[in-house]
Design brief:
This protein is mainly alpha-helical and about 375 residues long. Helices cover about 55% and strands about 10% of the residues. It has 17 helices and 6 strands. It is globular, with a radius of gyration of 21 Å.
């Protein structure tokens, strides 16, 4: 069933918006992959999936949806299809999973209020909820946190023969300020929506997500890098600290040259450095902060926290930098090994576009 072409320019600003773009055929594939992932803790082999949905359809829809929703990998001499973090919330179970996460977050917020030093929760802790979680719900919560990338202030912390664990992230402190859980959950999921445009069969190839307040979608042009004009030069004329500006411009050029050699992880590292430089400029060129302080030894997390605390970031900037903070962590070797993550082209393209977006935001206000 194809959706009307009138929906081509609908912005994706919530999970409901994105869910509405999924076709029945796409959802049927996602449901089968998700149920296998959840129940057997492993991706579904391609043969039964191809047999039910036809190989060319599965391959086509996987490419259309993108890795954050659905992806295939070689595992144990088999090609297996696995659900992505975003994909879980686009299945038929998606609305119910949102409710499950909402319950979990409220529970986590209460636990943190009672014990600010809480480090982890076990599946036995979670099973003791009132009302108790079913075996299926526990498996679902495990699947979500395993893929969460640190969203929901949680990450999968390991397991043994009797129980598994959730590691509580520092961002748990932010839960005390949440007043709209639905909006919070939607934002935490959409941060990772780095896929191509999700469109109906009739709209495929012509859909345009639009622009404006939807900051995350603006970072994710499908299967594209930044334009040649942007790649040649990042407009940093607003930075009057010439040594800093030249460093950031050189790093930007090098980041884009790395695209040609497919050095995806190196690109993310370089972009993280550029972001640090932009935040240093923001701190050092604000009247209230210009007291001869040096931020050269500060890490990205510290710079973001300082800028937020001093009100130097608008709402969009905060979203961009929060995304950068979480996403940069996925390239650490220990993190990659633990969660079996592979850095790919789409990840590097997001990093480049994020730098361009934050620089554009800073430039627009510097020239006002």
């Amino acid at each position: 069933m194809a959706k009307s072409s009138q929906n081509r320019n609908v912005q994706i600003t919530s999970l409901s918006d994105l869910r509405a773009r999924i076709t029945p055929r796409q959802r049927a594939i996602l449901d089968d992959v998700w149920q296998h992932d959840r129940d057997k803790n492993a991706g579904i082999p391609e043969r039964p999936l191809f047999r039910k949905h036809k190989s060319h359809i599965v391959v086509q829809e996987t490419k259309t949806l993108g890795d954050s929703i659905l992806h295939s990998r070689h595992s144990d001499n088999l090609v297996r299809y696995s659900i992505g973090f975003v994909g879980m919330f686009l299945t038929s179970d998606g609305p119910r999973l949102e409710g499950l996460i909402k319950r979990y977050l409220i529970y986590l917020k209460d636990r943190f209020s009672d014990d600010p030093e809480i480090v982890r929760l076990s599946s036995k802790d979670l099973a003791a909820w009132d009302p108790p979680l079913s075996v299926t719900e526990l498996n679902e919560l495990r699947a979500i946190t395993y893929r969460s990338h640190g969203s929901f202030a949680s990450s999968f912390g390991g397991s043994n023969s009797e129980e598994w664990y959730i590691t509580i992230m520092t961002s748990v402190v932010d839960l005390e300020e949440v007043t709209d859980w639905d909006a919070y959950i939607s934002r935490e999921v959409l941060i990772w929506y780095a896929a191509g445009n999700v469109v109906s069969d009739a709209d495929r190839g012509t859909y345009n997500s639009g622009s404006g307040s939807d900051v995350f979608r603006s970072l994710f042009p499908p299967q594209k890098s930044v334009s040649k004009e942007t790649a040649n030069k990042l407009d940093l004329a607003f930075i009057h600290d010439e040594p800093l500006r030249k460093i950031l411009e050189a790093d930007w050029r090098e980041s884009n040259r790395l695209v040609q050699v497919r050095a995806w992880k190196s690109i993310i590292i370089m972009c993280g450095g550029i972001l640090e430089g932009l935040l240093i400029w923001r701190l050092e060129n604000t009247a209230s902060e210009n007291e001869g302080k040096s931020y050269e030894d500060w890490m990205l997390n510290e710079l973001i926290k300082k800028c937020k605390g001093n009100g130097l970031l608008n709402k969009e900037d905060e979203q961009l930098t929060e995304w950068a903070r979480i996403y940069r962590n996925v390239i650490h070797p220990a993190n990659q090994k633990k969660y079996r993550r592979t850095i790919e082209r789409s990840h590097a393209m997001i990093a480049l576009n994020l730098v361009d977006a934050l620089a554009s935001s800073f430039r627009s206000r510097a020239t006002q």
